[in-house]
Structure formats: structure tokens, C-alpha cells
Design a protein that fits this description.
The longest helix has about 45 residues. The protein is mainly beta. The protein starts with 7 loop residues before the first helix and ends in a 5-residue tail after the last strand. The strands form 6 sheets. Strands 1-24-23-22 form a 4-stranded antiparallel beta sheet, with no helix packed on it. It has 2 domains: about 50 residues; about 280 residues, Neuraminidase.
Length: about 325
């Protein structure tokens, strides 16, 4: 039936034009759709490949038992100069000796603890909300610093003599303070897509920061001048960092021998030498299946917080598993030393 007021020829021309327009749209959209479908398949294949770890690249053995905390979930880990293991989760901080026995020292804060560092004298620096709290080695509050600002998300703290450096993911910068909490400077314009922004300071006075959006670790002097960087993005080569923003956390090996890095999304822990050359895995993705929803873990057990890591004086790698609130301990294989 043709619309009223139109001749048969006009109606026919309209139909033909409509069909031509539909065909043109399909000619443009269909190849794009098929390409996206193919790309999705390729991405899935990349993920499956990254999830499989070559056993020959595993450089560490996991030691048992792990350190079981009494926290519901965990976020941060630090190791003191005498190898005490300090863990935070929510508003709580717990301390364990090197054998995993819980010690009496506990701290509870009014807000979630988002960062932690321990000085050589045992004093503790906690990122709590928009500010830093400083405690002595017995857990007595010494100082509450001024607010960093309303946008602040404090994610990491590093100590070097009289300087304290604080990574702020909310403002995508690093703040420098003295030990009294007086701000000296801020530096950096980092690309931080999510609230993971780690830093560490070496014994020789270099500051390392994870610029996660660039998939690399950068080296600075203590005045904030960029010296060098290493790291690449790759969803194929295990030498690179995958996903949107990795590595989420890292630690320095003793004597500046290299780096231990953690990634989220596909959770894995890797080792690089001091120049940033990939050496292998501490632990592969198979050992952290609870971090990948593709394994069918119920949503209420899936915790998006990335792994955190610290290294003790013996070179043992302490990996904090937030989903299980335990510290998993890894030691270099004897035939790999």
C-alpha cells in the first residue's frame, strides 16, 4: 500500500532510495562489527596467553606456611629493618615477626589506612584519609600532619633521612615533607588512571615512582628531577606491563639489585634487574586466580585491590594477597642464584 498523496512512481523511487541508504549503512557498519568481534577474540586469546606462565621463567619458590592475618581484607605491607612484617587493612594495622607470629603492637585509625612506611628507628608513617599520621615504634601517636588537600588520595610513603615523600594519586603528584610534616615541595605530572601510585627510595638516595598510565618505573633525584625510566606496555610479551595501568606496586631488592613488580587485572609478580631488564616471575597468574573474574569466582569474593609487595633483609619477597588477607612468602630458587 502506497502512502496517500504520492504517485506510484514517487513511491517506488522512495522505496529504492530507502533500500539504498540501508545497504550503504550496512556496508559501513558490518565490516566494523566483524572487525571488533575478531579483535575481541584476539584480546581474549592474549589474555589466555598472559595467564599461562612458562615454568622455566619462575625464579622463586613459595614458602609455607603463609602469614595469616586476622584482617577481613588487606591493602598495604611494609617490612622493617629488623624484618617485622607490617600489614594494614581497613582502619587497622597489625605487626608480625619474621616467623609470622603476631606481635602485640596494633593501631586503629578513624579512617582507612591507604599507605604505610616504617623508618629505620621503627617509627611508623600512615596515610589516613587526606593526611599523614606519625607513630613511634610502640604505636604512640607523635604527630598528625596537615591535610594534603580535598582531592588527595595518599597511596605510598617513602623515607630518606629527614625527608618523607608521599605519592598522591588524587593529585597525580609526589609531595616532599620533612619529618616534622612541613611541606617542602611537590613534583611530577604523572598519568595515574586508577588509585595505584607507588614509590620507593633506595639507599643511595634515588626515588623510584610507578607511572602506571605510562606502564613504567621512573627514577628521580630527591629534588624531583627525572633521571631515567624503564618499562613498556604489552598484552603479549611478559616482559611488558599489561592492562590500563601497571605496575600497581613494586619493591626494591636488597643492595639495589633490582625490582619486584605487581600487576592487577591479570595478577602476577615479576622480577627485573636494576636496569629494568626482565628476569622472570616470582609468581604467575595461576597462583592468584581469585583476581580474574574469568575463573568464575563469585563477585562477593572478588577484590579489585592489587597485590602489594615488600622485601625483607634476606631477599625474601612478601606478597600481600588482599583477597585472602595473607602474606605469601617467596624465596629465590637455589639453582637460580
Amino acid at each position: 500500500m502506497k502512502p496517500a498523496g504520492y504517485s506510484a512512481s514517487q513511491w517506488l523511487i522512495g522505496v529504492i532510495l530507502t533500500i539504498a541508504i540501508i545497504c550503504s549503512i550496512l556496508a559501513i557498519v558490518l565490516p566494523v562489527f566483524l572487525k571488533e568481534k575478531k579483535t575481541g577474540s584476539g584480546l581474549q586469546s592474549d589474555i589466555e596467553r598472559l595467564r599461562r606462565t612458562d615454568p622455566l621463567l619462575i625464579r622463586y619458590d613459595e614458602l609455607k606456611p603463609s602469614i595469616k592475618t586476622d584482617l577481613k581484607w588487606a591493602r598495604n605491607i611494609a617490612v622493617s629493618s629488623d624484618d617485622r612484617v607490617i600489614v594494614t587493612g581497613g582502619r587497622a594495622m597489625r605487626v608480625y615477626d619474621s616467623a609470622g607470629q603476631k606481635l602485640a603492637l596494633e593501631i586503629e585509625t578513624e579512617q582507612e589506612i591507604s599507605a604505610i612506611a616504617v623508618a629505620d628507628d621503627g617509627s611508623l608513617y600512615l596515610g589516613v584519609g587526606d593526611h599523614i599520621k606519625m607513630f613511634d615504634s610502640s604505636g604512640r601517636l607523635l604527630n598528625r600532619w596537615e591535610s594534603v588537600g580535598p582531592k588527595a588520595v595518599l597511596t605510598s610513603i617513602g623515607i630518606s633521612n629527614d625527608d618523607v615523600f608521599v605519592a598522591d594519586a588524587g593529585n597525580r603528584t609526589i609531595h616532599r615533607y620533612n619529618i616534622s610534616g612541613e611541606k617542602r615541595a611537590s613534583f611530577g605530572d604523572f598519568i595515574i588512571p586508577s588509585f595505584y601510585f607507588d614509590l620507593a627510595i633506595s639507599a643511595d638516595g634515588l626515588l623510584y615512582a610507578a607511572n602506571t598510565g605510562e606502564h613504567r618505573i621512573e627514577t628521580y633525584d630527591l629534588d624531583g628531577n627525572l633521571i631515567s625510566w624503564w618499562g613498556v606496555f604489552s598484552n603479549e610479551d611478559p616482559k611488558g606491563f599489561c592492562g590500563c595501568c601497571n605496575p600497581v606496586n613494586f619493591a626494591l631488592l636488597p643492595n639495589e639489585e633490582g625490582f619486584i613488580t605487581c600487576e592487577k587485572g591479570i595478577a602476577r609478580v615479576k622480577i627485573y634487574d636494576k636496569e629494568g631488564n626482565f628476569e622472570g616471575f616470582v609468581a604467575g597468574a595461576e597462583q592468584f586466580k581469585q583476581y580474574d573474574s574469568i575463573y568464575g569466582i563469585p563477585e562477593d569474593r572478588y577484590n579489585p585491590v592489587g597485590l602489594d609487595v615488600a622485601v625483607d633483609s634476606k631477599g625474601r619477597v612478601m606478597v600481600l594477597d588482599p583477597a585472602t588477607a595473607e602474606v605469601r612468602i617467596f624465596q629465590r630458587k637455589t639453582d637460580d642464584l
